[in-house]
Amino acid sequence: MILAVETSCDDTAAAVVSVRGEVLSNVVASQGLLHARYGGVVPEVAARRHLEATGPAVADALERSGVSLDEVETVAATRGPGLIGALLVGFSAAKALAAARGLPFAPVDHLHGHVVAATLEPEPIAAPYLCLVASGGHSFLARVDECATYTVLGQTLDDAAGEAFDKGARLLGLGYPGGPAIDRAARDGDPEAFAFPRSAPGDGLDLSFSGLKTSLLYRIRDMGPEQLDARRGDLAASYQRAIVDALAARTIEALEREGLERLALGGGVAANSELRERLRSECEARGVAVWVPPRELCTDNAAMIAAAARFLEPMPYPDYLSLDASARLVSAA
Ligand code: KG4
Ligand code: ZN
To answer: What is the CATH classification number for the domain harbouring 15?
Structure first.
């Protein structure tokens, strides 16, 4: 049994996962509303809330799993990347819990967690596979040959896809978090009403979204408030279409270049209804099988951290005591 804690950004998460990959509990205390009034995550506010929420989240995860602390064999926690103040809270709490029981401890790369979330039961994906991770902080394509690590094939050179959704929603007056708001607004809009740029930087598999955001800004600037009100749905739909086109194009390119036949999605943007549909149909046409884990495993969560810990050699007590969280940690090969 693995007990995992994740506090890299604005969600306090704890989970119990078996070594086989069964999710016995997956608790997330979201701070979304706390940060909504600022239009984004305030790092210091997030860290302070983690301090209050980590203990209860761990207790809740244990209770819901029906697993007692005595049965926990390994403790895992996100070491990075993320907001350093936020990371430190969950990482220190998890180390303390492990140390108090003399248990081994697994420090986990948050991105590795997203990449292997699809390896959890009940329908685990098997390597080799391609993973598209698109969240508020990261957007990249990774190749997985062995689940203990991953190779980044391409990544965003500027904004993450979720960030593009969030910033676009703010420009459109749709509130925070922007992804779900644009997803909803886009349903009533015409995705071809506005021609937004689809950037494909370089000849590799990188992504870029900052030009798109600027283009939306200029469009909105040219409109009066009434016109913006009338065209909000069309703007949202066209903007979303541009993001989905860029992500789908790079994903298909990566599948073809790498000769992979399985695709997993991860990160909060995997919840986007147009992206899911597009990748499903494009992959079906190419005989590629797609794994879209349930929403709670795509957004930040601790079950994915436990998922990654299953493939790592945990550190024995007391070797991890002096180990620190790291805002920039990336463990990709
Ligand atoms: O993975 P996640 O929960 O946190 C990070 O690690 O960043 O992802 C959050 C991001 C936010 O930018 C949010 O706007 C985006 O995922 N998101 C969506 C949707 N739901 C969440 N983006 C597009 N469409 C959605 N339905
Ligand atoms: Zn994340």
So the answer is: 3.30.420.40
62 vs 54: CA distance, rounded Å: 12
Range of the domain at 55: 2-116+299-309
Q: Which of 109, 114, 135 to mutate to test the pocket of ligand 1 (most atoms within 8 A of CB)?
A: 135
Q: Are 281 and 101 in contact (CB under 8 A)?
A: no
Q: Which one of 265, 292, 299, 304 would you pick to mutate in the ligand 1 pocket, going by the greatest count of ligand atoms within 8 A of its CB?
A: 299
Residues 256 and 303 both lie in one domain: no
Neighbours of 80 (CB within 10 A): 22
| pTM for the full predicted model | 0.95
242-255: average pLDDT: 98
Q: How many domains does the chain have?
A: 2
Residues 170 and 105 placed together within one structural domain of the fold = no
Say whether both 161 and 250 belong to one domain: yes
Q: What is the pLDDT of residues 28-58, one digit of tens each?
A: 998 888 888 887 789 999 999 999 999 999 9
Range list of H helices, 32-127 = 32-36, 43-65, 84-101, 110-116
H or E element that contains 211: helix 210-221
On whether both 25 and 128 belong to a single domain, the answer is: no
Task: State the ligand closest to the CA atom of 273.
Answer: 1
Query: Is residue 272 located within the same domain as residue 132?
Result: yes
